[in-house]
Amino acid sequence: MTVTVADQICAHDGARERALQSSLRASAPKSADYARAHCRPESPGGESCAWYHGVWQYLRLCGLVSSPAWHREFYDKALRRAYEGVESSTPRVLISGTADFSMLEQVLHSAGRPDAVDVTVIDRCPTPVEACRWYAGRRAARITGKIVDLFTHTMQDASFDVITSDAFLTRFSAAQTAEVLEVWRALLAVGGVAVTTVRLHGAEDHRTDPEADVSAFVARLRRTARGAMKASTLDIDRIAEGAAVYARRMRSEDLGDEGAVLRAFREGGFEVLAHERAHVEGELYPVTYLRVEAQRLP
């Protein structure tokens, strides 16, 4: 099944998006400062991820980066189905890796009210976890935030009903993705569900002039920044510099075609309950995602 996303934010979601934008405007400067102080190197002696987390919420405000909003209807329906399949009155949800609180907003919205789900957020970097704690306070929601590396984690509570993450698996190679799915399976209760999206790579990824894509990305930021951020005191030049770094450095791993991605889930001990392709505007150019609901097998 193929779904075309002509407009990433549906008109009937206007109020919800305005509330999220308000939170992003309040949070973006805080996250930028926090990232500079707390983002961690991926390896000893390496560079931290501040180049990513420091500018990401500004880019999200301008609609320039991959986020759950590109798949809002999918997440709403898939998460609600997953919640309805849980026997307990309060489903346990694990957000496994996140750029900020956008996935938390989605999880809470799909639940109907902040106290309807028991949410744990994990990431190897403290910056997005702190952003989620901030947003949870704004929504009067109670969450558990943990700084966790999936490959070395010591989490023992393997009883989550739902694991979700947006465009997370393509941060890893195909071999590492198999390891991530193994961890997800271990952390899920039997019958638990994984809900996620995976970017598919194609001919559009073979660009002849990458710097032109970067320039166009920064130009889009400059066109939309002042209105989206609603603050005349922001240093747009500095944010634009960060946007250019992001556009040059951000990578999405090629995990293969649709069949290869679904096979990875099945070989990882999951039954694929549903999947669909979606065409979205993308960050630098239009791209295709695979949306997946998969249930942990015994």
Total number of helical segments?
9
* CATH architecture call: 3-Layer(aba) Sandwich
Largest sheet: 8 strands, mixed
Which regions are unreliable across 5 or more consecutive residues at pLDDT < 50? 3-12
Helix-strand sequence? EHHHEHEHEEHEHHHEE
Task: Indicate the CATH topology.
Answer: Rossmann fold
CATH class: Alpha Beta
Q: Could you explain how this protein is built, in words?
A:
There is one protein chain. This protein is α/β, with parallel strands linked by helices. It has helices at 14-38, 50-61, 72-84, 102-111, 126-138, 174-187, 210-229, 236-249, 258-267; strands at residues 2-4, 92-96, 118-123, 143-147, 160-166, 188-200, 270-280, 287-296. It has a single domain, classed as Vaccinia Virus protein VP39 (Rossmann fold). The longest helix has 25 residues, at 14-38. The radius of gyration is 18 Å and the shape is globular. The chain starts with a strand and ends with a strand.
Briefly say what this structure is.
It is built from nine helices and eight strands. The protein has 298 residues and is α/β, with parallel strands linked by helices.
